[in-house]
Amino acid sequence: MNNSEQIEGRSLAEILKIRREKLQKIKELNFNPYGYEFPKTHSCNDVIDNFDQLENEATVKVAGRLMAIRRMGRASFCHIQDEDGRIQIYFQENKIGKPGYKLFKLLDIGDIIGITGSVFKTRTGEITVAATELKLLAKNLRPIPIVKEKDGNVFDAFTDKEQRYRQRYLDLIVNPSIKEVFKLRSKIIQWTREFLDGYDFLEVETPVLQPIYGGAFAKPFKTFYNVLNRDFYLRIADELYLKRLIIGGFEKVYEISKNFRNEGVDRNHNPEFTSLEFYQTYVDYNYLMDFMEEYFKFMIKKIGKSQFEFGEHIIDFSNPFEKRKMFDLIEEYIGCDVKPLSEDELRSLCEERGIEGKPGYKYGKFIELLFDNFVEHHLIQPTFVIDYPKEISPLAKTKRNGSDKIVERFELYIGGQEFANAFTELNDPTEQRERLEKQSRLRELGDEEAQAMDIDFITAMEYGMPPTGGVGLGIDRVVMLFTNQKSIKDVIFFPQMRT
């Protein structure tokens, strides 16, 4: 359909002026350009899917945004788009009357209209609604990008990433297929609740504004609480509050929440993100590995397939998840056993390999640097990486029957990205205090992401915390995986953008 008359040869200022002039003409014709309601009876897809029942036998009411117009004297065609699809509308002056046809001639791409009419097929076989009544529901004053289609193929698509992210509403209008990504996101969150509820977990809510942040290595966002005359922080994790509930007597709790970390923006990170954290008493990280594998099996059953394209990889969930020790993987990919190395030797090794630590980095951080730079991107199929340095895991229990420098922790990697982080949770309050005190000293040395001391949490632990296993899972990354999106911005409606 020829939409070029709408924009070609005109500046934006001219288009805006013309649209406002049309708005005034519509008002002069005694039409309200911004309707109050329209009682739809069918969606566009409903009409198409039920054509045999609706053809020439029923009056339908459909509504949507005008996406294409072909004017031909006293008879014209257009296409409207609603949440789920598009349908063609046919206008004849003798069917909708002269006032209605005058209104139609003042419409533009982007207007939202309601149509009452009957259903038929054109000579080319396209299911169409023949309008008997037109109602303008919202006049468009600003032109939308026009995506051209021919024979079902889209060309000249709206692909400007910056504009798509900054004006997501335009992206949703012009690229309606991306709605499917966000619909699946909603289902993934629903299914996550269904999975955990099926194991008798209790969904809870914990504070977003916290007097002391904790539970992760991250720099927080800080705000000021006027009534209390003190600084507060947006949470970086739910962990310490969920553990308080475990101490209080709940045995299985979870929270799906927005967390906030004052960090950079890249394809895997957004300062505001959605995570799942859950905690279960009397289990350890071995149990949790089986539980997380069961979670993903549950998800793929809901979606209906076991193999997923993720970037240039095919992820196969039909096989058992692999379990690999962190230090073994580092040795495999850098060709050096780092277990016996001292902190200074690790620092030198990192420098030799072209990576440099930040102020305050110690033994554990250098191990993490080696892993992040030389191992992570190799872990394509689902892999539990287990047994991490204690220094970078201050909330996890020391590995039983192993080195005192190692804790019972795993991270789940898929497609070269981390998806989940889990511990056999430390429940010794004396040791927990000592570990957080060490973190405080690292902060003094310049490590802004070191964890803060939370005295109230230590006090709670002193009342007795049962053995517990806990998991944090990135919901945004799960959605990226199952929808094959390369950037976290593609699965968040309104991502943070640099100015």
CATH superfamily of the largest domain: Bira Bifunctional Protein, Domain 2
Question: Distance between the terminal alpha carbons, to the nearest Å?
Answer: 37 Å
Query: How many β-strands, per DSSP?
Result: 20
Outline type? elongated
Order of strands, main sheet, comes to: 8-12-13-20-19-18-17-16
CATH topology of the largest domain: BirA Bifunctional Protein, domain 2
Instruction: Specify Rg, calculated over alpha carbons.
Output: 29 Å
Sheet with the most strands? 8 strands, mixed
Low-confidence parts, pLDDT < 50 over ≥5 residues?
A: 1-6
CATH architecture of the largest domain: 2-Layer Sandwich
Structural class: alpha+beta
Assign the CATH class of the largest domain.
Answer: Alpha Beta
Task: Let me know the average pLDDT.
Answer: 93
The helix fraction, in percent, is: 25-40%
Estimate the strand proportion: 25-35%
Number of domains: 2
Number of helices: 15
